[in-house]
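To close the chapter, one final illustration. This time we ask the reader to focus less on the individual chains and more on the assembly as a whole: which components sit near each other, and how the overall shape emerges from the parts.
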Amino acid sequence: MRDIEEQSGSSDTLLTLVAGGIGTDEAYQRAGAALTQGEGPAPDELRDERTLATSLTARAFATLFVRDSLKPALEPASRTDTHDGSSDEASQAQLIVRWRELDSVDDLRTLVAVARGGALVERRRALVRLGERLNAPKEHDAEALRHASEALLTIGSPDLAYERSLARAPLPGAIGREVRLERTQWLEILDRLLPKLRAFWEGEYPSEPLLELAGHERAVLLLRSRDFPDAVIAHLSAVIEGTDGVSLPRDRISLLSSLRYAGDPRLVPSLGYLLADRDSGLVIEAAQVLSRIEDPRVLPLLQGAYERAVLPGIRIVLAGALGRCGDRRGEAFLMDQLDSKEAAQILMPLEALEGFDRVKDTTKIVASLRHQDSLVAAAAIRALARCGDAAALQPLRELRHATSIAALWGEIEDAVTAIRARIELRGEDTEQLSVSESWFGASEHPIAPRTPIVRKTRAWFFFNLGCVWLFLGAKERGLAAMERAFRSRESWLTPILSAGLYLARAGEDVRALVAFRRAYQVSRRKTEASRAGMKAIAHTFLRRAEALERENRAAIAQALLEEVLSMDLRLVPSALRFELERRYSSLLRQGELSGPHLLPKELPR
Amino acid sequence: MSARHRDDIVMLMHALLDKADDLPEEARIRALSVLSEHDGVLRSEMAQLGDEEGVVRLDSGIQVAPDAALTGVGAVPLTQGRRQGSASTPPAAAPVRLLGRERLAEWLENLIVSILRAGVDSASASPTVRALLRPDPEEEPLPASLILARWAGRLRRALQAHDALMVLLLLEGGRLAAAALKESETNPLAELWLGKWVLQGRNEERYYGRALVELGRERVDGWNRGALERRHLVDPATAEVFCEWARHQETGLSVGPCPRLVTVALASAQRLPGPTWLHLHQYSVSPFIESVTFEALAAQAHRRVDTILDAYFEGQRRAPGISEPFVVFAPEPGSSSPLTPVGTDNRTLPLIGSSALWAEALEKLWSHEAPRLLAGRIVLRLGRMYLAPCSALFGASDKLTFSRLS
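The assembled structure is written out below.
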């Protein structure tokens, strides 16, 4: 017992000395005394500090590091982090509470409001819940069903593409069919890809298969990455980490940008790995992908990266990523960046602010609405949409009347809808707001003169004739007939649009572009209202831009993409819209074209 | 590769091996590597003698660049990935150098004195200690030894956490190293700390024809935060653990994701204190891992916490401050919480992570299903043992899911 007591006392003494230090005379003496007990160096040797320190280390280790003193902990490790995230955790907690509440919400109108005006996590959950409720149509009145179905059709953010397809798939009619067709296409692309992936790792395939896919195919594939087998995710991880052995940093960045809306938690470890990379492009893209993944590991990773980040560009993106996760520590920093007047300086902070579901003061964002660069204006509109500030409605209305750029009209309409939804969620009355609903009622085109019945009949005759020739494969005859139909009846969109669709399906992108541009000149509004037409237009412009890029004519490719991005693309599938934007951003990043983005001020009427 | 191409190579190998029968026992040929061209594509193939005498087994190798040179058995020289050249060249790492043994011994002892003078509770704020633990690579190249870099990183962390027992463990390792360095340059411990063990391939064993599964990939602190990358590979047949590591983004690490199945055609391993250090020379990689492989891993996993503790303790006594054992642990089903898995000896081995929100994050991740297998490092924190998991396996035999955590 006495030995144990002595040993215990000795252990305590040694631990105290190690923890407290031997820098003082008293501690030094005590250390010397402890070491001369039992076997140890002679007192004379301990006058040398180095000898005392090494002897103390050996004795303390031998005494304290014994088998019985090592025990497994009984509880998981407690908090050791020093960061003060109290306000941010409250913000996140609030998000989580609201999100959980949606599981029991049955009211379609509320779900639609959340799907339009909530934070990203909430909007996703609301869409899924909406789809579940629409599967029980008898429980809702017709008006509510109509409202909900319309919402599912018009909510077009790529952030919500996956949940939207889940919600739409069970629906009857064309909507459900379209989604199921997309799913079938996705499966076909995946079936083609899997053998190539196996062959790649077996050394039988020379290049990385995903990067070989056409842009649109890759976008369609990766938007549903949550449905991938684990092995495909492992392959993706290898490519983005750079451990596949073939991919260049540029390729990795390209793939990461394609993964932006993937939302797959299995990618979190690889993306976290990239946050500490030396290449700022990889860090930025990794943060963009991470912030859209619902996984509790994401927030700590982003917080750590933000606190360590030095370069302003990286801090801006990380601040936006944190905002998307409910952490607003970067809000003030982003607002400070908006003091600049240069488009290149304020575009990134505005895009980052799109992730915040609320900000303290939207004044600077509103001021950016009037920026001469329409990309800046569009980013400001989207940021205001997500902030949900009712004070932004009037400036948005004013911009709507001041601008003639169709892309901005679409953004403004979506922003107003989102802000109204947020107002509704706050329990406020939208009818009391002095915003007219007749914004879009003014006619943009003069009414076409009435055509004599003979000319109408003639036009229909040639149109039908053209359809027959095209069906029989007589392309030139069919197109000539379409042209005659078009000339026979002014402002009739159908023949020229049909010709464009035919040419696009036939792969004649250049001629299709001509046809589509003519259709747009005839009637922009009707063209943009045609779902099939807009999809074909977007596809054609994208393919043509890719072809020009391959021919090293990037300037013309960029002009094409600018042209299509100036159109109202709300009826275009998310994956395709995303790929257009991504391709355009990629061209800008390559530095072949610089300067503020310029969109045509006046569109053809 | 076509069947005919393979057949041609097998015939050639047989012919060569027949001629090698006259060689004495001590010079026996175990394997040969062939650089062949097929349809304009160069391939390296490893052919080795199978269990039955004279049977040649062909392992598909890596596609190589036209100017690759053969420098010995299986040595298309340390091909980093699928192609040589700029396509897979990572950014240049910080320059490194070999530290002289006397200088290193003095540095170690200076550090021990500085830390004990200040005390563990205050050493992290001591300018002397900080200067010693963070050499400026702008002024002077970093020491080459990965062991030294890792030790310095762990020590810095332990000082920041005021973890006296961990600091003591590391200082004891430093003390032993200093003593070995002062004794002789050829002392194995001295060579290890100088970085010469790895560079000069001491105690190297060659491996052929093994299959390994990578279960953990982590970036750990060296001289800088996250400066070192480690991959932990496990042999499903024997449960032996190997470790591949290097400075982050430096050449020396193999290709492939985590998890991956690595079929080794030629590898060398060095028995160091701690996990066996692995160098893959020729191998094939696949992210497609069959359930039966994971089941084999589960069958070999530790089930008792006390055996893990015993192994950890012995490792630290043998090589204090160096050993960082990686284990595969199969907890008992029905543990009270996924964060406190229990062994068959009814002892818990709680999990630990890297940030304050980590535990909460993991609990949310595993709220629906507890993992069947955990792979990670054993960590000592404030005198208590934890498992820092790198990955987990879920599900039953028909549907196993591997989840990489970090």
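Residues 294-404 of chain B form one domain. Chain B touches chain A through 96 residues (CB under 8 Å). With these observations in hand, you are ready for the problems at the end of the chapter.
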